[in-house]
Fold:
Amino acid sequence: MEICPICNRETQAPPVERGSDYIIYRCSYCGGDFPHIEHLIDYNREYLEDKDTFQVNRKLRASQDLKDIYREAELTINFKYALDFLKATSSKGKLLDIGCGVGVFPKLVEDTGFDVYALDPAEQAVRYARDNFGLQNVLAGTIDDVPPAWGDFNFITLFEVLEHVERPRELVQKIYELLAPGGYFIVSVPNRDRLEVKLGRRGLLDYPPNHLTRWSRQVLGFMLTDIGFEDIATEVDGVNRWTLTATFLPQRLNLQIERKKIETLTEERLSGDGFFIHSPIWMFAQRMADVFAFLLQKLVGRRYGQYLIGFARKPDS
Structure:
């Protein structure tokens, strides 16, 4: 018998995948996927090394144009869903972003009038958030390091973190306890049923020790309900051009394109060139990819999108 870290129940979990140093099981109770693995990642150390996992964060640190950073972040689908939700609320209140990276999302939220707090395990990311975005209530650490003086929160956000942690239910339970009565939790995770996986094109980083658990819409909804949240809604972001590149382009080519974009941003800062990401050909290719993604989504539906986004409320009492 195994103990599932998603539902915290004993389960007759059959193996669904084996790697050189891990086995992934599927819980017979909640349906979630979880691993047995020999080694876990030290994210603070990874952040300082030259790893593909953190190329986006290095790109943000290399760029001096904060307007471009905001523009790109607002187009990130998970941020957009969350920002639209937050802007529609009648009360601003206090928001805690866990796993904030270099602080883009907390800054976007702060600009809409919220009292923002943030955490990230990587000290270098937190330093960037303070120095470049002026975030005051941000610290390097985990949810266990939240100072008691911060009190409870009206909103807590968690983007692409659950799949990285060994005990996701334990983390969400602690989030539940930090929320004020009636407070909202907003979470996103990679969609286990996304198009690239269905076509056998799982990304290089979607394996242990980087991604530990795998989530479907049903599994995410089950865990939130089981912990005690109510008014739960889960969405799939749908098929977009990032889905297409992950599905149809070779993974090495995707990494090369990402590196080129990073180099271009850095070179643009120094020389004002930046042809790669501002050329008419590149812009046309992106527009055509958007059109193709729209047509494909009409054909296959939204359920094969890249990410799941969940909204849940803690009861008033």
Summary: The chain has 13 helices and twelve strands. The CA atoms of residues 60 and 68 lie 9 Å apart.
